[in-house]
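Module 6 notes. Inverse folding takes a fixed backbone as the condition and produces residue identities as the prediction. Think of it as a translation problem where the source language is geometry and the target language is the twenty amino acids. Below is one complete input and output pair. Work through it position by position during the lab.
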């Protein structure tokens, strides 16, 4: 079933909110997003977060900001393909409907799209379903388009943490605010290829710019954000010294069991980094004893199973490929975007 564009009217004028970097986001009400009914044989993405790394504390206007790098990977059979309602870098509509375009086997082969992606909406015959999802928001600081409701970050006390991240409550700052992420929007592109140092000219790089047109992540690719990028931060001002977990999850609503975007598996959307927060005699905060999710046997076992299945589909079951891919998902690639 292809969702009718009339549903865009319910999402076209959402309430604006600040994304934490001084930029307004469209603040899509997820309860208004219509259900997308899919054929059984469509090719869906499988979204995972790379283990967050490079934790550091930045003091900003008497606030303590925990900064970190993170990445979003697609290890599924189909592309995570998103397009705006109104294409064009010169559009004056700063909040546009976002559509998830879903392919069948006839539209996506050898990790290549049949469509060039720059005719919007995607031409009939180049996809199976086109489903209303969230919003494209123009990010004034970055000067390009972002898609909302992509990632969720939070810092939890280690004693309250469950491995999937869904059951831990965020810690509380000295002003009573929860230690949750402020980065609501992302520009999604194929930034690096898992288990490979392939140049950006690789044919399977379907998504590569944010100024207009489509965005997304191809199977086997990762979108990455450096710890210095606007929004890669959580306010942890005044939380007590102790053991904590930084939780990073992809697909808005997934932690609550109600994911916005269509994908094949939402049980693997979360990764994390354990750390100790220490304070000196003057109360200054310092990060110590970082330990990523890949030091937990249960997490690694589930990750290896997912990667082995991906390798069998796309790389002929290569054991060395799967090993390198696991290393990348554990944060082995440097953060340089």
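Target side of the pair, the amino acids:
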């Amino acid at each position: 079933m292809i969702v009718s564009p009339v549903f865009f009217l319910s999402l076209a004028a959402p309430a604006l909110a600040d994304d934490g970097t001084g930029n307004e986001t469209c603040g899509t009400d997820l309860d208004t997003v219509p259900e997308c009914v899919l054929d059984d044989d469509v090719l869906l993405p499988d979204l995972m977060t790379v283990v967050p790394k490079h934790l550091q504390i930045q003091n900003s206007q008497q606030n303590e900001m925990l900064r970190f790098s993170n990445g979003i990977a697609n290890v599924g059979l189909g592309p995570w393909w998103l397009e705006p309602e109104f294409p064009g870098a010169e559009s004056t509509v700063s909040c546009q409907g976002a559509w998830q375009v879903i392919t069948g086997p006839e539209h996506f082969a050898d990790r290549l799209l049949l469509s060039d992606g720059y005719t919007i909406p995607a031409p009939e015959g180049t996809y199976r379903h086109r489903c209303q999802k969230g919003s494209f928001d123009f990010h004034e600081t970055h000067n390009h388009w972002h898609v909302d409701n992509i990632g969720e970050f939070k810092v939890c006390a280690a004693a309250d943490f469950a491995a999937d991240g869904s059951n831990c409550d965020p810690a509380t700052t000295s002003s009573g605010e929860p230690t949750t992420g402020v980065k609501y929007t992302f520009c999604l592109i194929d930034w690096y290829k898992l288990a490979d140092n392939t140049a950006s000219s690789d044919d399977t790089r379907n998504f590569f710019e944010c100024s207009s047109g489509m965005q997304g992540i191809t199977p086997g690719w990762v979108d990455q954000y450096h710890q210095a990028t606007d929004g890669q931060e959580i306010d942890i001002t005044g939380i007590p010294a102790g053991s904590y977990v930084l939780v990073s999850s992809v697909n808005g609503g997934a932690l609550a069991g109600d994911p916005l975007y269509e994908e094949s598996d939402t049980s693997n959307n979360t990764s994390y980094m354990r750390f100790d927060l220490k304070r000196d005699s003057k109360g200054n905060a310092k990060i110590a004893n970082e330990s990523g999710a890949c030091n937990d046997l249960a997490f690694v076992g589930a990750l290896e199973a997912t990667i082995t299945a991906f390798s069998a589909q796309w790389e002929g079951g290569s054991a060395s490929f799967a090993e390198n891919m696991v290393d990348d998902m554990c944060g082995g690639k440097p953060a340089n975007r």
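Reference fact for the lab report: Helices lie at 297-314, 319-329.
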